[in-house]
Write a structure and sequence with these properties.
Order of helices and strands: HHHHEHEEHHEHHHHHHEEE
Strand order of the largest sheet: 2-4-3-6-7
Number of strands: 7
Structural class: alpha+beta
Distance between the termini: 52 Å
Number of helices: 13
Shape: elongated
Helix content: 55-70%
Largest sheet: 5 strands, mixed
Length: about 350
């Protein structure tokens, strides 16, 4: 292990030695000689051959040379310490390499380098992430590490498969402008509180996406590991959208259009107000105000309130969550299924 640890350390400090050797060539020559020995030893280990004992002793003697003279009794204990530290260095290096490989595979297969907490990865697509709980102890963390490998390998085949939106029995609301038997179906999964979803929706409208596809909009309120909602008023918006859609097809999308494209008299977007300022009562009042503008009277609003909290509405939300998190294994939204592909992240006009 000493020679392997020495190789790892020498590889890490190689850049610094290269810079120093410009001014002190002897340092570079001595380093290169030691590095070649370490590489030779490592290569033999890889081929399951015995390493030269001389190199191992050279490393130890270099470290212990000053101790031998002044404290000869320390030599044996320090020798053991060197062996233990060498093992730890090798373990940490192997773990770091595997973690780097896992992160790259996860980024490619799942769109985020962090499988459990996608929001912790700054390299993935712009999304509102669906996070899991953090491990509470080392045993959970170890188990999660291996579980993440399983999720990655399970997701790799999905990169090469074709997605047919009609294969998934989503509960959705309709976009009237895109509804036509002659147009291909697309599924658009969004959270009313997600700012990336809002931008994607605006981009899709600007690019004519809703005119070119029969879009099924799937309202989905992201839940954290403790089942609380990521955006405090998203659940209520989703419930009202399903209730409005049940009474009048195409009505729910008008609620969404107000939420994603309009601002109040102070120039603050309604989504920002719902996420940061509005209480549950304020949110209900706002949505019902929009419904009044669509011609709903007091009796109609009461009917929508009842439907919003029917068990059937809760079932619809649970069914969508099952498809999104367990069947499609989506780690972040917005996610759009169209043209045989699963597109996760901000929908850009250039698409």
């Amino acid at each position: 292990m000493v020679c392997i640890a020495a190789f790892i350390i020498l590889a890490l400090i190689g850049v610094f030695v290269a810079a120093i050797s410009i001014f002190k060539p002897k340092v570079g020559k001595a380093y290169l000689k030691m590095f070649k020995k370490a590489w030779g030893c490592l290569w033999k280990k890889v081929r399951l051959q015995k390493c030269e004992t001389g190199f191992k002793e050279d490393v130890k003697n270099t470290i212990l040379s000053r101790v031998i003279v002044k404290h000869p009794k320390w030599v044996k204990p320090l020798s053991v310490v060197i062996e233990v530290v060498s093992v730890l260095i090798v373990i940490i290096a192997v773990w770091a390499i595997l973690t780097a490989i896992k992160s790259l595979l996860a980024l490619w297969a799942l769109g985020s380098c962090n499988v459990t907490i996608p929001s912790a990865c700054s390299l993935g697509a712009e999304v509102c992430s669906i996070d899991e709980s953090e491990p509470s102890n080392i045993f959970e963390a170890t188990g999660r590490w291996f579980t993440e490998w399983g999720e990655i390998f399970e997701a790799i085949p999905d990169k090469f498969r074709s997605y047919n939106p009609e294969d998934y029995d989503f509960n959705y609301v309709t976009v009237m402008t895109g509804q036509s038997a002659d147009k291909p179906i697309a599924v658009d999964i969004f959270d009313p509180g997600c700012s990336v979803c809002m931008i994607s929706y605006r981009n899709q409208k600007a690019a004519g996406f809703f005119d070119n596809y029969d879009v099924h909009m799937v309202p989905f309120a992201i839940q954290d590991a403790d089942d609380s909602y990521k955006f405090k008023n998203s659940e209520m918006v989703v419930r009202y959208m399903f209730a409005a859609e049940q009474l009048q097809s195409g009505l729910a999308i008008k609620i969404l259009d107000h939420l994603f494209t309009e601002k109040d008299e102070d120039g603050v977007s309604y989504q920002t107000l719902l996420n940061e300022y509005y209480s549950e009562t304020d949110t209900k009042y706002l949505i019902e105000w929009w419904l009044k503008e669509e011609g709903f009277d007091k009796k109609g609003l009461e009917e929508i309130r009842k439907i919003a909290y029917y068990p059937e509405t809760t079932t619809k939300m649970s069914e969508n969550r099952e498809i999104i998190e367990n069947q499609l294994k989506i780690k972040g939204i917005p996610t759009t299924l169209y043209d045989g592909k699963k597109h996760t992240g901000l929908w850009k006009v250039a698409d």
